[in-house]
């Protein structure tokens, strides 16, 4: 069964690529803003452009974020795990997605930078920000900055996702 599934997945990717579309299959979600994909030849780590999710591990970055926000590291990690599960709900392993690239193609860790478009035409990056599973970030220049800021404002005002659990819409992030 796994061989049949792999063959069908490879055929779908090959057909899409023959039509000039950069289509890949999701292998796994690493965290809310990073996934691993397969293009029929190789795996690649993909960092979603324009979004930043809370960390899923206790490390220096999660500690800095907790200090900056005035919350516990455990709350940051919980929000990060929720963001990961939320992303997985839209692109579980085997999901075929289309990659769209911005001005920069790689981040400083060698991950591919991309907007990830689902088969229904929705963009995963936008879904995450609009539902409070991610914040918009100018870390990597992207063409959707204004739109992402508006999605974030609405999510924050609506108390969606971590906006309603980690901090309130009245509190400014330092």
Structure description:
- Helix content is 37%, strand content 20%.
- The protein is built from five helices and seven strands, in the order H-E-E-E-E-H-H-E-E-H-E-H.
- The strands form two sheets. Strands 1-2-3-6-5 form a five-stranded mixed beta barrel. Strands 4-7 form a two-stranded antiparallel ribbon.
- The model is unreliable at 16-20 and 168-174 (pLDDT under 50).
- Proportion of residues in extended strands: 15-25%
Helix content bin:
25-40%
| Mean pLDDT rating | 85
Spell the H/E element sequence.
Answer: HEEEEHHEEHEH
Largest sheet at a glance? Answer: 5 strands, mixed, barrel
What is the name of the CATH class?
Mainly Beta
Low-pLDDT sequence parts: 16-20, 168-174
> Alpha-carbon distance between the termini?
52 Å
Give me the Rg, rounded.
17 Å
What general outline do the C-alpha atoms trace?
A: globular
CATH topology: OB fold (Dihydrolipoamide Acetyltransferase, E2P)
**Architecture per CATH nomenclature, i.e. the level-2 architecture:** Beta Barrel
- Strand numbers in spatial order across the main sheet: 1-2-3-6-5
Count, helices: 5
- Write down how many β-strands occur, each being a DSSP E stretch of 2 or more residues: 7
In total, the number of domains comes to 1
Q: How does the helix and strand content classify structurally?
A: alpha+beta
Label this structure with key terms.
alpha+beta, 5 helices, five-stranded mixed beta barrel, two-stranded antiparallel sheet, 37% helix, 20% strand, 174 residues, OB fold (Dihydrolipoamide Acetyltransferase, E2P), disordered C terminus
């Amino acid at each position: 069964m796994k061989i049949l599934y792999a063959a069908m997945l490879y055929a779908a990717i090959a057909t899409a690529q023959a039509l000039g579309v950069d289509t890949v299959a999701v292998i796994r979600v690493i965290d809310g803003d990073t996934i691993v994909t397969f293009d029929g030849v190789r795996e690649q780590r993909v960092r979603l452009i324009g979004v930043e999710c809370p960390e899923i591990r206790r490390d220096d970055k999660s500690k800095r974020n907790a200090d900056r926000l005035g919350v516990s590291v455990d709350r940051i990690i919980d929000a990060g795990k929720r963001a990961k599960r939320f992303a997985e709900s839209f692109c579980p392993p085997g999901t075929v997605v289309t990659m769209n690239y911005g001005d920069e193609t790689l981040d400083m860790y060698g991950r591919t930078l991309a907007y990830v478009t689902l088969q229904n035409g929705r963009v995963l990056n936008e879904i995450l920000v609009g539902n409070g599973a991610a914040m918009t970030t100018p870390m990597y220049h992207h063409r959707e900055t204004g739109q992402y800021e508006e999605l974030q404002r609405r999510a924050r005002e609506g108390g969606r996702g971590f906006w309603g659990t980690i901090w309130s819409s009245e509190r400014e992030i330092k």
